[in-house]
Amino acid sequence: MTDAPVPQQLLPRHVAIIMDGNGRWAKKRGMPRAFGHRKGVEALEPIIEACGQWGIEALTLFAFSTENWARPKDEVNALMGLINEFFNRKIDELNRKGVCIRMLGDLSGVPEPQRRVAEAAMARTGNNTGLKLNIALNYGSQQEILRAAQRLARKCASGEMAPEDIDDEAFSAQLYTAGLPKVDLLIRTSGEQRISNFLLYQIAYAELVFVEENWPDFTREVFARALTTYAQRDRRFGKV
User: Fold this and answer.
1) Which residues of 57-96 are buried (b: 16+ CB within 10 A; e: fewer)?
2) How far apart are CA 111 and CA 138, in angstroms?
3) What pLDDT score was predicted for residue 2?
4) Is-contact 62 136, C-beta < 8 A?
5) Structural contact between residues 67 and 26, judged by C-beta atoms closer than 8 angstroms
6) Number of domains in the chain
7) 3-state SS class at 4
8) Rounded CA separation 40/80 (Å)
9) No. of helices (H) and no. of strands (E), the chain
10) Domain residues for 37?
11) Residues designated as active site
12) Tell me, what CATH number does 200's domain have?
């Protein structure tokens, strides 16, 4: 693939990113947090493009968590506005490039304007066969796991399946990420080293890479560096 930083066989199939540090990036520059979030959206394009060019199968981005509603109202409103702006501005290009968009999370709890735009993006790109771009919106992994357990419990209660039939495949099929490969590489920006309720089941054997750059400074070059770090890891999956 075009200028991939490592050989194709050493690239991850599925990369997940916790896009952290927009507010701190803005504060360092004496700007409001909303300015940092806008710059964070601008940082998305080269990373999405790189994934497509380098042959990465899936990219999952943590856009807005179930806990983020507790942030100041003006910041939440700014984030919601940027979601619509991103889709309205980029959907034609993403569709042309064959990107398939999936939203992960409880869209019923998202304001109607954002929900309509997100659903339209999924419908328009659902049959595309290029990069699988997954955007976690109103997402929390603990809630996702509970939702999956409840759905399987209902199947057992109705006689549709037996408890002993519940295995990794059956459980994974009830997650928002059903049909996607398990995450190979999780990147978090801004120097923070925690998972923050993101893809807890899906990252069981993922490699974790924490970079110091805040998300607006996460360039194609920083991404390539993280992929190189991943390629150098010895992934044993519990074996010797």
Assistant:
1) bbbbbbbbbbebeebeeebeebbbebbeebbeebbeebbe
2) 10
3) 64
4) yes
5) no
6) 1
7) coil
8) 13
9) 7, 6
10) 8-140+185-231
11) 20, 68
12) 3.40.1180.10
User: Edge-to-edge, what's the strand order for the sheet holding 207-210?
Assistant: 100-104, 132-139, 58-65, 14-18, 185-188, 207-210
List pLDDT tens digits, range 18-64: 999 999 999 999 999 999 999 999 999 999 999 999 999 999 999 99
Q: How far is C-alpha 4 from the chain's CA centre?
A: 21
Tokens found for residue 138: 């109103």
> pLDDT digits over 146-190, tens only?
999 999 999 999 999 999 999 999 999 999 999 999 999 999 999
What pLDDT digit, counting tens, does each position of 190-221 carry? Answer: 999 999 999 999 999 999 999 999 999 999 99
Amino acid, res. 209: V
Task: Report yes or no: 39 and 212 within 8 Å, Cβ to Cβ.
Answer: no
Which residue do the tokens 């390539």 mark?
224
The amino acid that residue 161 corresponds to is M
Structure tokens that stand for 55 in this block: 């042959």
